[in-house]
Amino acid sequence: MANVETVIAMNKRTFIKLLAAMIASPVMLSLFGWASSHKLKNWAGNLEYGTDHLYSANSLQQVRDYVKKQSKLKVLGTRHCFNNIADSTHNLLSLKSMDEVVALDPEAHTVTVNAGMTYGQLCPYLHTRGFALHNLASLPHISIAGACSDCNAWFRREKWESRDGGVCTGNHHGSRPSG
């Protein structure tokens, strides 16, 4: 029997999709992580933090205890900052694992969340209870506390208020859902 070779033609789009899927697979990502330096980086990987001193708090009490012990620190959420404003050469405090709803008050139309809660986590929670947020971040992995802190920085510069008079408070009192 003659040796028959089969050639499979693949267009460029299919090739790129397959290559991207292979590179993004957990096995490849872990290999890339192992091969690269172990420096902390932002979400996109384009910013390397100035310290590897990272403490991950799981409760408000752990945050209080850690903050009392540190003379200098910066707080990290989902690391979606593309400049060094969240960078520190001293200590970093991660609130990412603090991602639960504390309270939903249907009468007042308020929700209180922990600092690590993302929009992608909060929106399904609210939806199942008949509520939604008036405004959302552009990406589901952005933390609500991070968005509020960014909003507060911008508000202080621009004297901005939303159409309904609400302002991101940047504190733990929560966003105002509509129902």
Multimeric organization: single chain
What structural class results from the helix and strand content? alpha/beta
What share of residues is helical? 25-40%
Rounded to the nearest angstrom, the distance between the terminal CA atoms is 72 Å
CATH classification, class level of the largest domain = Alpha Beta
Counting structural domains, the number is: 2
What is the CATH third-level topology name of the largest domain? Uridine Diphospho-n-acetylenolpyruvylglucosamine Reductase, domain 2
What CATH architecture of the largest domain would you give?
Answer: 2-Layer Sandwich
Short description:
This protein is of the alpha/beta class.
Outline the structure in words:
There is one protein chain. This protein has 179 residues and is α/β, with parallel strands linked by helices. The chain has two domains: 19-98, Uridine Diphospho-n-acetylenolpyruvylglucosamine Reductase, domain 2; 101-178, Uridine Diphospho-n-acetylenolpyruvylglucosamine Reductase, domain 3 (2-Layer Sandwich). 32% of the residues lie in helices and 12% in strands. The chain is built from five helices and seven strands; from the N terminus they run ααβαββββαβαβ. The protein has helices spanning 12-23, 26-35, 60-69, 119-128, 144-158; strands at residues 54-56, 74-76, 92-94, 101-105, 110-113, 132-133, 177-178. Strands 1-3-2 form a three-stranded parallel β-sheet, with no helix packed on it. A two-stranded antiparallel sheet has the order 4-5. It is flat and about 75 Å long. The termini are far apart.
